[in-house]
Amino acid sequence: MKITYKHKITEKLKPQEIVDLLLKSRGIKDTKSFLNPASPLDLSLKDFGFKKRDIAKMIKLLQKIKKNNEMIVVYTDYDADGITGGTILWETLYVLGFKVMPYVPHRQKEGYGFSEKGIDTVKNKYDPKLIISVDHGITAIKEVAYAKKLGINVIVTDHHHRQKEKVPGQAVAIFHIPALSGSGTAYMVAKEMYQNFIPLADRSNLKELERNFHTDYLALASIGTIADLVPLTGPSRSIVSHGLQSFQKVKRPGIKHILKEAQIADREIGPYEIGFIIAPRINAVGRLEHAIDALRLLCTKDDTRAHELACKVGDMNTSRQDLVKEQLAEAQKKVEKLKEIPKLIILYSNHWHEGVIGLIAGKILEKYYRPTIVMTKGDGFYKASVRSIHGFHITDFLKTLDKYLTNYGGHAAAAGFTLISGKRDTFIKVAQKKADILIDNTMLEQVIEADIKIPIAMATKSLVEKIEKLQPFGMGNPKPTFVSEVVVMHAKTMGKSNDHLKLQVNDPLARSTPVDMVSFGQGEVFKKLTKNQKIQVVYQLNLNRWNGHETVQGIVKHLEL
């Protein structure tokens, strides 16, 4: 493991000077707006470069549809970002008095985004005059043309990677905002609709809808943004910052019962609670069954129904965890049987659950630090999920293999695709050959990146308090990580099985107040430690608040003896 850091502090700096250095190294020039993000209520589609005419096309079509009492379908993705965005857009249109239905494609039967099968289902079931996509559609050129052929207009709202100038040209309007999540984009589009249709709406519903844009919809958009690993900078930081604050005011039964079922109703909701507790529950529904139940949970106003659905979602999340554990063990055995670990790991099975292959790919990448493709067989095709390492843009890589794929899409670090079964072996051979050329060995050296190397004496309560003001932390704004050379004053194991390590460390040169550190999953290191031993630690700082006292605590990410 190689440790890198952007800055090394040797002279004594004040806590604010250390924080200023952090912000500068992250390219943050406007400190004031970063620390005090603008309200998303003050942003509009025009702030993202959309012209009046782009918005006018959408509004004109909606006016015609409302006048004729025609049907709209909100066609949303099945992940947490799509479900939260779909909730925002469907509910806004519904409260504004439109005839509107939500549609969530089945992951196994229809796959990601638009498909002819899905569009046919929507046509036969609802016969809409308009489909609005949420969190997909920017690459669906053929599918949008197909919908148009059936007499259905399409408006695309998406944030995913687009293929240069290739966009669905037959769409009435395209709202593509890469700076936001799918739910963030839906929030902005829904707000534009709300502002344009206030005069035509039922006044009794408008008060609640206005409140939702201040509270519930911001909370939902923050869930989608964090779940989709969108960088928490610029407008996405605004959405998450204000969205997290709004959780205290949310009255939506679905959100309240998710928090109760997860036993976090009394907690302050932050990126951790969303990323590791709330979003996995919403995602579990689409992974194992049909994500429409997740959307129903977020939309229902019935407290009893919300309780039932939240319990069902919680049970599904437990089932998902068990399934990942079982099928990951199978995938792990396949890797262990390889004579040599290739630069691009490709694994496949006839029975792995399509809903968990992305999680398996992530776990394999985590262990071997290689781009990983995990495929499972369907009826005449393979569905694949891909996770990649820093510096290897996996979606750009898939572009070079598109002749083997029926469809693909994603980001730099994650993607998905469908492959005809008969092309599997050729695809694997060609993909691994290309990867051998494109992936340099230095890219495969796992690096732990820290922000600053500091003397441990600078890890003070004042520094931690100033760091806390940089929240929310997440993609694009990770929690600051430090490196220090320290001496071990005291060490012991902790936890039921002694799996974890607790340290008390100090500065080797300038003795000061000792700092407590916890290293999770590193209990076995205890046997290798001695008093006054010098070690190097990579860690993050927080305040351990207990029994009315606050003490500085380091959470160890890596240690070297």
Automatic annotation (TrEMBL):
Database matches in NCBIfam families: recJ
PANTHER family recorded: SINGLE-STRANDED-DNA-SPECIFIC EXONUCLEASE RECJ (PTHR30255)
Protein name listed in UniProt: Single-stranded-DNA-specific exonuclease RecJ
Gene Ontology biological process: DNA recombination; DNA repair
Entry annotated with the keyword Hydrolase: yes
Keywords of the record: Exonuclease, Hydrolase, Nuclease
Organism per entry: Candidatus Roizmanbacteria bacterium GW2011_GWA2_37_7
Domain DDH: from-to ranges: 72-200
Annotated DHHA1 domain residues: 343-433
Pfam families: DHH, DHHA1, RecJ_OB
Top-rank lineage group of the source organism: Bacteria
Coiled-coil blocks: none
UniProt similarity note: Belongs to the RecJ family.
A molecular function (GO) term: 5'-3' exonuclease activity
Domain RecJ OB: 451-558
